[in-house]
Amino acid sequence: MEPQNIQQLLHLNQTKIVLLVMDGLGGLPRTAGGLTELETAHTPHLDNLAAKGICGLQQPVAAGITPGSRPAHLGLFGYDPLTYQVGRGVLSALGIGFDLQGQDVAARGNFCTVDAEGRVTDRRAGRISSARGKELCERLRRINLPDVEVFVESVKEYRFALVLRGEGLSGELTDTDPQQTGVPP
């Protein structure tokens, strides 16, 4: 759409919009032929919102592609996730108001629990409180890397943002989350 035509879409009004994104809501039945969590849930308020509003489905990337939350959220807000490769670290850092700079490398992290052998036992550290997450971030801020500023910022509960600032850093990060328990990162 041409920029001058955008003005045609603007209409002042007193209504409000709620965009409810139920990321990760899809579930599977606990037993064969059983109901999913959502099918068994008591949802009178959601039912009321659905009855009074407009509901729809969106394909944030393309038909047949089940994206992760990063590209799905970009698609929800009208960005083509195949064109705009914005990582979750950038979104997390900006979401907490961190002043990202052009040379920064940002990563989103989860605290996890490991056993004595270093195997992941809980990918979200028992869903620790935000206060505990802040304490852990404060401890991690003590990390020193030559010629790199290290920022470890609490996001919420077990989530944090890691920002590295320095010359010549690469955004080519690898993920240590094995996406399962019982194995090492």
Give the topology.
Elements (H helix, E strand, L loop, with lengths): L2 H4 L30 H4 L3 H9 L16 H8 L11 H8 L9 E6 L2 E2 L5 E3 L7 H11 L8 E8 L2 E7 L20
Short description:
By secondary structure, this protein is an alpha+beta fold. Helices cover 24% and strands 14% of the residues. Strand 4 (149-156) and strand 5 form a beta hairpin.
Notes on the structure:
The protein has 185 residues and is an alpha+beta fold. It has two domains: 13-85, no CATH class; 87-185, no CATH class. It has six helices and five strands; from the N terminus they run αααααβββαββ. It has helices at 3-6, 37-40, 44-52, 69-76, 88-95, 130-140; strands at residues 105-110, 113-114, 120-122, 149-156, 159-165. The strands form two sheets. It has a three-stranded antiparallel β-sheet. Strands 2-3 form a two-stranded antiparallel ribbon. A hairpin with a 2-residue loop joins β4 (149-156) and β5. The longest helix has 11 residues, at 130-140. It is globular, with a radius of gyration of 21 Å. The mean pLDDT is 88.
Helical content stands at 10-25%
Strand content: 5-15%
Order of strands, widest sheet: 1-5-4
Approximate shape: globular
Specify the number of helices.
6
Detail the poorly predicted runs: none
User: What is the number of independent domains?
Assistant: 2
Question: Mind summarizing the main beta sheet?
Answer: 3 strands, antiparallel
What are the key terms here?
single chain; alpha+beta; three-stranded antiparallel sheet; two-stranded antiparallel sheet; 24% helix; 14% strand
